[in-house]
């Protein structure tokens, strides 16, 4: 992946109390409506360890124009409608990736690192 043109979208989603597990299952089930778009480079779902019911979704795109094209598509509207019943609020941030540093560790686990030290 070249970072020169990677456009990243980060969503912060507040999920209604008691619906987190169902939200996660639904997000996984409908995720291919995003990742099957030819301009999408992948997406991640993360649960906050600091805030109850808060999730972050990070999605990478080849560029902003292609993301905006997706954002206004029927495909995206349908995807949003499936997740909307779980949301109580949220926010979106967009950014350009300017650098990426690949991991350089040659040891696979923390225990192996300790043994090698």
Automatic annotation (TrEMBL):
GO molecular function, one term: monooxygenase activity
Protein keywords: Monooxygenase, Oxidoreductase
Residue ranges of domain ABM in the record: 7-95
Presence of keyword Oxidoreductase: yes
Protein name, as recorded: Antibiotic biosynthesis monooxygenase
């Amino acid at each position: 992946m070249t970072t020169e043109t990677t456009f990243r979208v980060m969503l912060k989603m507040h999920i209604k109390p008691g619906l987190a597990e169902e939200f996660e299952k639904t997000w996984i089930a409908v995720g291919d409506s995003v990742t099957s778009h030819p301009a999408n480079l992948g997406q991640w779902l993360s649960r906050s360890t600091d805030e109850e019911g808060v999730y972050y979704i990070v999605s990478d795109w080849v560029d902003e124009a292609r993301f905006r094209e997706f954002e206004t598509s029927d495909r995206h509207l349908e995807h949003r409608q499936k997740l909307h019943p779980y949301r109580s609020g949220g926010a979106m941030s967009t950014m350009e990736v300017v650098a990426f540093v690949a991991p350089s560790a040659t040891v696979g686990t923390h225990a192996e690192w300790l043994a090698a030290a």
